[in-house]
Specification:
386 residues, Serine Threonine Protein Phosphatase 5, Tetratricopeptide repeat, DNA Cyclobutane Dipyrimidine Photolyase, subunit A, domain 3, 5 strands
Length: 386
């Protein structure tokens, strides 16, 4: 799907890939999405997730394009796949305790070799390209937990550090789902037959766990309120802060002149262990692309900062010296970027600078529906209302 060549981390590249995949988003995706290859060489998945995850392209525009090309019914499976990411974000946003439990678990540095050929091959693919097919991710997470008896926390951390589309909500909750911690009494058990069928016989591991007991019924934390709609007037002398959770701020703020435009890279906040350079380079280039689309002649110098205490302090001082009293940024959902913004906010507040987080209406309409399982979320969804 991806080779070892650097990907273009730009909105233009995401739109180009979307356009190329659109003819296959209906029946081809529906029938072959679980296969790693197509008998006629057609794409079985879109591989748009690195661009979607960082909102170089948005879920809303992707779904609109797919519906325009195929209609809602014919493209239902692909629309659902895009909405899984939105659902997971809404679920975690209402239950941030699940994220903090995961982050507060110590992840030891260890040898990831498994001596299972498919697992070791998939590990190498992930480390080299930053990508794995979704079905491979499920097999990997299942074998990791039920055959190798390794902690889901360490597997989730490995994925989050190496996936170009590593998303705190999708990654954390999907690993929990495979392990039976999301849905009472249900686990996902990988089988040799399933792997062989969907890899065209490339792999057929014979030493996999044949059964596994579901864990005790999961105790879900109580939901917390979601962000309220934003109704404030954005000041004229405001600075735009760009982060890796939403790299299309011009569609949120409808193109305006900013007093300054800055970006912070929070990739290293994903883990206490080193994050892949494949990931950090992609995110860095994606942030630069977003800066280029939002900087205006009024901006002093569009700046890129790493998310460290020293850089946060220096940034707050510089903005104060410019006379900026408000920093405006797209809402960052529960995860490392939201954690980093809280640390930055403390530095800004010391200099009487307000950090204004602005949620998208799309999220505010969909996130409240992520209260139980995905298919209840889907059943109660009317795409024509969005």
């Amino acid at each position: 799907m991806f080779n070892d060549e650097p990907l273009r981390a730009s909105r233009a590249e995401g739109l180009s890939r979307l356009e190329a995949f659109l003819p296959h988003a209906g029946a081809t995706y529906r029938n072959y999405r679980n296969y790693l290859s197509h008998p006629e060489g057609l794409p079985t998945v879109s591989a748009l997730s690195p661009w979607l995850r960082h909102r170089l392209i948005t879920e809303e525009e992707v779904i609109a394009a797919v519906i325009n090309a195929h209609g809602t019914q014919a493209a239902e499976k692909y629309i659902q796949e895009v909405l899984w990411r939105v659902y997971w974000k809404g679920f975690l946003e209402q239950r941030p305790a699940l994220w903090h439990e995961y982050r507060n678990t110590e992840i030891p540095a260890s040898d990831l070799t498994t001596n299972i050929k498919c697992m070791d091959d998939w590990q190498k693919t992930l480390e080299t390209t930053g990508y794995l097919h979704n079905h491979v991710r499920m097999w990997f997470a299942s074998i990791w937990q039920f055959t190798l008896h390794r902690s889901w926390h360490s597997g989730a951390d490995f994925f989050l550090r190496h996936l170009l589309d590593g998303d705190p909500a999708s990654n954390t909750l999907s690993w929990r789902w495979v392990g039976g911690l999301q849905t009472n009494g249900k686990i996902y058990l990988a089988t040799a037959d399933n792997i062989s069928r969907h890899t065209a016989g490339q792999y057929s591991p014979q030493k996999l766990a044949r059964s596994a007991e579901p864990p005790p019924p999961p105790v879900m934390p109580a939901r917390i309120p979601l962000p309220a709609p934003f109704h404030q007037v954005i000041p004229v002398n405001a600075c735009l802060l760009i982060h890796e959770e939403d790299l299309h701020p011009e569609s949120l703020f409808e193109q305006r002149a900013w007093a300054d435009v800055i970006a912070i890279q929070t990739t290293q906040w994903r883990s206490s262990l080193p994050v892949s350079t494949v990931v950090t380079d992609f995110v860095y280039d994606a942030l630069k692309d977003a800066i280029s689309r939002n900087a205006t002649p009024k901006c002093r110098d569009a700046n890129m900062a790493q998310a460290t205490p020293t850089e946060f302090a220096n940034l707050a001082v510089r903005l104060h010296e410019q006379g900026i009293t408000q920093v405006v940024t797209p809402w960052a959902p529960c995860g490392p970027t939201a954690d980093a913004l809280s640390a930055l906010e403390s530095e800004l507040n010391l200099r009487a600078i307000e950090l204004i987080r602005v949620p998208r209406n799309w999220d505010l309409q969909l996130w409240p529906r992520a209260t139980h399982g995905f298919f209840r979320f889907w059943k109660n969804l009317d795409l024509t209302d969005l």
